[in-house]
Design a protein that fits this description.
Layout: H1 2-27, E1 32-38, H2 44-59, E2 64-69, H3 76-87, E3 93-97, E4 103-105, H4 107-113, E5 117-120, E6 125-127, H5 141-162, H6 166-174, E7 178-180, H7 181-186, E8 192-193, H8 197-204, E9 207-211, E10 214-218, E11 224-227, H9 232-240, H10 243-262, H11 268-285, H12 291-309, H13 315-330, H14 343-369, H15 375-379, E12 383-386, E13 395-398, E14 401-407, E15 416-423, E16 426-431
Parallel strand pairs: 1-2, 1-11, 2-3, 3-5, 4-6, 5-8, 14-16
Antiparallel strand pairs: 6-7, 9-10, 12-13, 12-15, 13-14, 15-16
Helix pairs in contact: 2-3, 3-4, 5-6, 10-11, 10-12, 10-14, 12-13, 12-14, 13-14
């Protein structure tokens, strides 16, 4: 009996120790932080990527999300979507301007200050947060002032919520002021300056952050870094949303459709052109487009098509090239260089596309002016041999065929003849005289 009691006690003791060890292991589980990289202009596809990454971190039970940021800026609407997602995130989100040489400019400023933890690598900079809208045409001074004041109120509210320097953030919006990582730390714009990710994690340890659910202490000791890459779909959308790529796709699309119209039945250029145009239109809806620019580009294509139909001695072609150039300059209506086509892309693309259109026009005109080799027109000028005497009637042999023929003068049998005119199924001929008149 005593042995049984001792066995039962030993069993429950062992079970308790196992359960206690499991609980201790669970409590001692290393924290996990997801890490994503955003090195692009802030556009709607990038906003979607960041917000989906936050949702994924929550669903997978990660302890936080770290965004490695390097951006020249971007669209106000996309930036606000990102800031809203970070401000309402159930897990801590750290924005780390990285690597050295990176920047958080324009929209990047607001994204950085909206984070629970803001950090920068030495050799980076932050600032120049003047607002960039998404609209048609340029804004007048009154409207620009309203947009600026709205942006100031927005960023000051975020900075105050995060306990950061709201006065400097306002200067960044109104005066496009920019500062280094060390200056940002000194002015309390960011929380840390960290040379690498491990250093950032060390400094983040035991940091208290305010989530929507309440305050939380961030634990990063022995943290596991889970680096995530952008999905294929998101990479494609982010790539074609670049103004330079969107511009190239637009011109390739128009060139492909133009070639198909000029040479019906080729098919391949039309297919490529259609796909490129669809992708370009997707990108243009996410960018600050000036529709006057699009109309000028389309008008240029119309002038190129007209050159094929109307003999203008090159004037329509010149007008088409000028229209393309002006449309390209006006296409993106934004003071932000990140949302405009760069000169290094525009000039080669315009040169290539213009030469392409001129080449196609030259080929079409050459084909139109080439002597016809079939039909009635193709018969005129053909040479052959008289099979019988030919005057008011007779027969001739031309290109392997016998024809009824007539002539204004008698043509003897066996003489070399040339077709002068085709009248129904009868041809009018003339005798070919040799150089001696024989």
């Amino acid at each position: 009996m005593n042995k049984k009691i001792r066995s039962v006690i030993l069993f429950f003791t062992t079970l308790s120790l196992v359960l206690l060890a499991g609980e201790l292991r669970a409590q001692a589980k290393n924290p996990v932080f997801d890490v994503i990289t955003v090195s692009a202009t802030i556009t709607p596809p990038i906003a979607e990527y960041i917000n989906q990454s936050i949702d994924a971190s929550v669903k997978e039970g990660a302890d936080g999300l770290i965004i490695l940021l390097d951006t020249p800026g971007g669209l106000d609407l996309a930036m606000r979507d990102i800031a809203k997602g970070i401000l309402n995130s159930p897990v801590p989100v750290a924005v780390y301007v990285h690597p050295s040489g990176a920047r958080a400019a324009s929209a990047g400023v607001i994204i950085t200050i909206s984070s629970h933890i803001a950090a920068m690598t030495p050799g980076t900079n932050i600032g120049a947060a003047h607002p960039v809208g998404l609209g048609i045409g340029s804004m007048d001074k009154t409207m620009m002032k309203k947009v600026e004041n709205d942006a100031v109120a927005y960023v000051r509210g975020i900075a105050d919520k995060r306990g950061r320097n709201a006065d400097w953030v306002e200067k960044s919006v109104r005066k496009s002021e920019s500062i280094t990582a060390e200056e940002a730390l000194k002015l309390k714009v960011i929380d840390f300056v960290a040379p690498d990710l491990n250093s950032l994690l060390e400094q983040m340890h035991n940091r208290e952050v305010a989530l929507v659910s309440g305050k939380k202490i961030v634990k990063t000791k022995d943290a596991i870094i889970n680096k995530k890459k952008m999905g294929t779909r998101q990479r494609i959308l982010a790539t074609i949303s670049d103004p330079n790529i969107a511009y190239i796709l637009l011109l390739i699309g128009l060139a492909g459709l133009y070639f198909e119209l000029a040479h019906p039945g080729v098919i391949f250029p039309g297919v490529i052109g259609g796909i490129s145009l669809i992708l370009a239109f997707f990108a243009l809806q996410t960018l600050p487009v000036n529709y006057a620019g699009i109309l000028l580009i389309l008008f240029g294509i119309i002038l190129f098509i007209a050159e094929i139909k109307v003999i203008s001695h090159g004037l329509l072609t010149v007008g088409g090239i000028v229209s393309l150039v002006l449309g390209s300059l006006l296409l993106f209506d934004s003071p932000d260089p990140a949302l405009r086509v760069s000169w290094s892309v525009m000039i080669p693309t315009l040169t290539f596309i213009s030469l392409f259109f001129v080449g196609v026009i030259a080929l079409v005109l050459k084909a139109q002016l080439r002597k016809r080799r079939t039909g009635k027109e193709g018969m005129v000028g053909q040479e052959g041999k008289a099979v019988t005497n030919v005057f008011e009637s007779g027969k001739v042999f031309i290109k392997g065929e016998y024809w009824n023929a007539s002539s204004d003068q008698l043509v003897n049998k066996g003489s070399r003849i040339r077709v002068v005119k085709v009248e129904g199924l009868t041809i009018k001929i003339e005798e070919i005289q040799d150089k001696y008149g024989g």
